Amino acid sequence: MAHPSSDTHSAAPPHGFAFILRRALISAAIALVLFALMIGVRTEAGPTGVLIYWTRFGDLAALVGAVFVGSIIVELIRTFLGPVEIARRVPDGLRNGLSALRRFAVPALLVFAVLIPVIFYQQRYILDLSILVLTYVMLGWGLNIVVGLAGLLDLGYVAFYAVGAYSYALLSTTFGLSFWICLPLAGILAAFWGMMLGFPVLRLKGDYLAIVTLAFGEIIRIVLLNWQSLTGGPNGISGIPRPTAFGIPLTAGPDGLAARLGIPFSPTHRIVFLFYLILALALLTNWATIRLRRLPIGRAWEALREDEVACRALGINTVVTKLTAFALGAMFGGFAGAFFATRQGFISPESFSFQESALVLAIVVLGGMGSQLGVALAAVAMIGGFELFRGFDQYRMLVFGVAMVLLMIWRPRGLIGHRAPSVYLARRDAIAADLVKEGHG
Amino acid sequence: MTGSDILEVTHLSMTFGGIRAVSDLSFTAGRGAITALIGPNGAGKTTVFNCITGFYKPTTGMIRLVHDDNRDFLLERLFDFRIAKRARVARTFQNIRLFSGMTLLENLMVAQHNPLMRASGFTVLGLFGAPGYRAAERAAIDRARHWLDRIGLIARADDAAGNLPYGDQRRLEIARAMCTEPALLCLDEPAAGLNARESEALGELLLSIRGDTGTSLLLIEHDMSVVMGISDRIVVLDHGVRIAEGTPKEIRDDPRVIAAYLGSDEEDAVAEMEGSA
Amino acid sequence: MDYFAQQLINGIALGSIYGLIAIGYTMVYGIVGMINFAHGDIFMIGGFIALISFLVLVSIGVTAVPVVLLLVLIVAMATTALYGWTVERIAYRPLRHSFRLAPMLSAIGMSFVLSNFSQVSQGARIKSIAPIITGGYTLFETGGFAVRLSNIQIFIVLTTVALLLAFSWLVGRTRLGRDMRACEQDQTMAALLGVDVDRTISMTFVIGAALASVAGLMYLLYYGVVDFFMGFVAGIKAFTAAVLGGIGSLPGAMLGGLAIGLIETFWAAYFSSEYKDVAAFSILIVVLIFLPTGLLGRPEVEKV
Lengths: 441, 277, 304
Known about the structure:
Chain A is mainly α. Chain A contains 16 helices and four strands. Chain A has two domains: 8-84, no CATH class; 98-435, ABC transporter involved in vitamin B12 uptake, BtuC (Orthogonal Bundle). In chain A, the strands form two sheets. Chain A has a two-stranded antiparallel sheet. Chain A has a two-stranded antiparallel sheet with strand order 3-4. In chain B, helix 3 (104-111) packs across helix 6 (131-150), helix 3 packs parallel to helix 7 (166-178) and helix 6 packs across helix 7 (166-178).
């Protein structure tokens, strides 16, 4: 765990075994100190309520041993590959591969996505997982407008997801409004919140903006948790109506879609319908983003990310420009929230924790800020990877954290860091990642 | 202020926490003319620019800009982006501020943001590809093409601005400012870092901009060959105070300027002024 | 009035804890210009280490309270400092000159790692211990309401003052402190003048973590509980304290900590305790919007 990932001294010619051994020993010693108490001793409330403890020296030894061996392996690989860092080597190949594949990959992926319910009709698990992945693809694309294009660091994106979900849940359970009326309302409400939260904080830059948006996200969650009379508090809202196929319920009754079409009813119909719904919503987000990038507002977002002072000198109203990015990102978050509510049928504040914001932001940054394809791939990788640990629930967040750290070290600019120009005269060459700025707001 | 002046700065002062960067400065810039603001480092020239373009709010003083149609603007009361949008004052920066991750063409398209925004119906019409917007976009691309042509960078239109050599970046920044169709163009050391030949080309570009578009120019410059060669009028600042104003010839012969400009070492100063003639 | 006085005392004790955490934020922000998102969890780890070492010490027969406290303090500071060092080494150093978002996300990742590491290794349930420092003084009593100053509150405030004095000496008078201030101004120049920038940044994380572990120990003594999730909210509040005091300013961090502690205590006492976190977060937002340089920070002029 404690092996240094980049070390200025390791640029020297290949090291001897003694050197590697020494480093591994140091790493193991550090691990021993770090874990001695946290792993070696386990505390728990005893039968009388008084805290007791027992030792786990076996686990401690195993872990320290693992660090020792892992450290040797890492050092060996590093020595073997010479001074060129492994981390820098892999991505080049991947990037070239990606750009070559890109032309075919996008339509192929799209066709595959459309066909998923056909191919996996019998596998409910895969359908559910695909819906989950697509939800995050949509959230990633929505946040990409704010972070990737406009360069505004938003760590409270989940707040708008929550606003959308609760808007739909409350509007449908109290007023009986249908999904198709609530969906745009949820989006508008989320956009409205986006503007309300966005307006005061847009002067802030970088980390300050990040922490303020994080605080906003938390405030919304705490309010949802404590405003019992409206939101049901920690118990959430249940019995949220399922979506209808434009008014026709997807139920087994005589009014149901199956009965009307004269086909036998299957509960999978609803899953398939939900799948196409979220696919359509995600593609809407994608379509809007691609269009917006080629419009003056989209170019102004990217210009804002590049240099805000120059934008002002060119007569661009930076406040309005930032607010539109915030509002649009929030709107798509709200759509996704409404979808989440109708899919689950039940929502509670627990679903809208800071971890969700961090996950969506990780998807955007790992995807390569601003790249639509990259964000989609990152969502598939992250959520898919998350699923692999379904059996080890308590380790999931731990692994997620480790993955976030390693992925950032491996690829700080994301999978697809270069940028495609929004308009061109003769050639459409990608712009290298190191020229593209990340924004300061 | 006579009717032929586009910009009138009166009693301008700017203080930063006790330090007076500009004090009681008054000068005018002629319509369709090239006015240069010169002075030693730290004389307060960039501060004056930042006050004119709204990045600083002056402590006291008035900055009045009059368009050809006699509409006038009090710049010290306008927000920075409104100065560029309404009063049509464009500027470049001492330390070039291009959108380095965007192409040359995109840089020039961003400069036409406001007219394009209107044409796109504030995005709504543009989102659905309304024909009016398409025409406006084509016109904007044509204007960008025109300016890229003029600065000789049309072949690199689709390259990232950050990849251009230094001198080209300076010219691109000027072209970008011109794409906003300014009434007054403020250039902050446009010749800094350019070699002699590039400086000469820059001078020609600035003269042709004035000649073809009638744009008034206000420039800060240290390169005396450029200043003396193209300016109609020169204002000399030292320690935030105006110490001289006049035609290049008057300035060149003014002993106060020579003394202030290069400090006590008068001979060198004279040599520099002469050399640039 | 008595109720007020009692809340004032409670608020100062709580504020001391926030202040100690805030120093870590302000130091790291000053030197690398980034929020250390894992710092709140370092505080949590400090609390856990203190808890475990306390249990172990008592069970092996060390029962004299001052001795136990001193040993726990040493163990907690040393171990947690190493956690701080590790966080810097893994999540920050490889990304030193990279894209700015990357270290932020790796630090957030590190924060997840630390909190879930505690959850996995020590269980998700809240751990509570019996009070270690007991007793106190009744300052005055009117109408049946006694204003009390407990020994633990005295301990917290005294320890905080002592640490602050030691820390001011470290930053102001030692070679390390000078190196830290130099790196804060200009890392490249500092490196050219022979300052070991990597080591200095490491030490900044180490010192910040050591102070946070003391805060963790105090939290454990004061409330008698620790849990794996306590670092998140405490971290945001301490960051608020750092911002309120003016980021980069050490006295500011302490002042901000006291302010946040008092505000939170009074809010919970007079309004509602459910929304006390909302109060702290709202203050963060309001301060950043209206007073972005904080109480003791230096104003910045935008360079054009």
